User: Fold these one by one.
Assistant:
Number 1:
Amino acid sequence: METTGPRTVESIAAHFHDVDSSAVPEDFIAYLRKMEESESGRAVREATYRAVEAAGSRGADIGCGAGRAVADLVRLGKDAVGVDSSQAMVDAALARFPHCHVVRGSAFELPFEDAELSWYRSERTFLHFPDPAEALSEARRVLRPGGTIVLADPDLASMVVSSRIPETTEVVKDAFCSAVPNPHAGTHNAYHLADAGFTDISVVPVMASLNDHASAFGVVLEPALTAALTQGVVSEEAAARWKDDLGDLSRRNAFTATAIFFVTTARLAP
Ligand SMILES: C[S@@+](CC[C@H](N)C(=O)[O-])C[C@H]1O[C@@H](n2cnc3c(N)ncnc32)[C@H](O)[C@@H]1O
């Protein structure tokens, strides 16, 4: 089965905090498009849209990537602004959705006035923040009292796969977790929000089933395996055995892979 080359996918797992330093920003954009087009990607996005439905019009999608959610929220009647720290992402979003407002900016220094926004959305971005509390302090500044925040991230420890070599799966999973700055963002966002003084916190888990072998490798297993190879915790032989096993299961319709996203919603006290 064809999958993305290892060096590139390792840099994707570990370098989403600085896409523009990569020699291949287009690989990051292609990676996001794979997740975007998956059934699970749609389910996660829709859960976040429901979370901001009742909020006022003006809000922002922080770490908006290639812009899909900004365009959807504009279509749903929101005055949505996309913010991303990567110029390559901003350019990709504007090329796809020229009618949208997308700007380059950092989650740690947002281009908004105090209390300007009614909602703040961020999907799979807190995963890449070593210090989420700092981003939440900035979110508090730009949200108006009573404003809504919704964060959607996986907890990378939730990854399961139908491998018959579970000990390799565990090593691969641990390596993936250590390659990403905030791997448990999905389950940790709630207490970070509580610590930052947000109220009415609710967490909705969304199961991402990746039963299609190629999608599972494209979105999560290849980046995870490459992290393990790069860290030297799995040998080339063990990696090949693990991949062959999953390929064999796939040919017999016995392949399954799952991870859990957590959509965490909260409000700034009125
Ligand atoms: C995994 S992508 C997710 C993109 C998009 N939310 C999605 O779900 O398709 C993470 C995005 O966050 C952006 N990013 C990383 N660090 C950031 C920061 N400090 N401020 C704003 N954006 C950031 C990256 O450039 C990238 O586009």
Number 2:
Amino acid sequence: MTALTILLVLVLLLVVFGLLFRLQILTSIFSGTYVREIGMSNRINAVLMLVFMVVGGAAFFWSFSENFNKMNPPIASIHGHAMERMFWTTMTVIGIAFVLTQVILFVYSYKYQHKEGRRAYFFAHNNTIEVVWTIIPAIVMASLIFAGWKAWTRITGPAPKDAVVVEVMGKQFNWLVRYPGRDMKLGVVNYRLIDASNDFGFDLSDKAALDDFTTNGEIHVPKGHPVLIKIRSRDVLHAVYMPHFRVQMYAVPGMPTRFWFTPTMTTDEMRAHLGNPKFDYELACNQICGASHFAMKAKVIVDEPDDYQAWYAKQKPNSANTDMMASYKETSKSAGLGKGGSLGAKAAAIEETGETPATPLSAQTAM
Ligand SMILES: [Cu+2]
């Protein structure tokens, strides 16, 4: 109890001293004898603000223009141009607002640095200003978002019925590519069937899977024809990124996604356009997915429609691979899938995400 009393006395004493000190400062302020040492620090800060604006601003514009071509490769798809317009409209509007506000911020910090005898103007409230700076940004932002939403729904809407279908499955660390084969229908796949000879997990009890074929990480698509990319992931999050086609979409384990686009320039045309005979379109993984993420890419080849048909006709279905057949029989038994077709309509319904199967390209040679 004594200790508590002593502690309480000490605390109260501290409070009294604090109040006395504060009182002393207030008296000296009102009697006009109070002097506060500002020194040079305020002036140095004000100048550094200007230096930061000029040097930082110059460095920003330099790095932007220096890397612009890397970020902005030539467009090789139809919707890419709509995206580009959207991007530059947004960039212009927010760019103007950004530059204006930043210049004002730094210039005013310099202009209104501490000066002896200068008092700040006390400005309480102004309804007109509040209304103006709320309504104008609200209208501008809402129009940008509305235009962006319209463009995005158009771009990500259902693919045309005659789209060529390619399925890509991301896995650590490469892309598996599957085509629907002659029947233009992707067969059922099942993760429980994945093994060394069946890395896509083809379920060969589904007839549609029998003519499906995979390629060696190469994606062929025809020029001037809609292409629907169906996207899966086998392990972690990946992202399908094809910068020239302005395509990007996540590959999510357990949740198929998709993106459709129409390529407008063949690989050869792009090589000529860039003056680079070694150029190839690429599909890169754009989601950090592990140690070898940097190397996770596939080659995309845009062919003339005739070349594409010729290439397609040459591909052999994976079911022709006897290893795969033998291992399928074994795995499907041990995975408890029973005899053929046990996955049934339910699994097939899950597989088909409402996309209409593609029709053979030859049906549209008018393209
Ligand atoms: Cu990845």
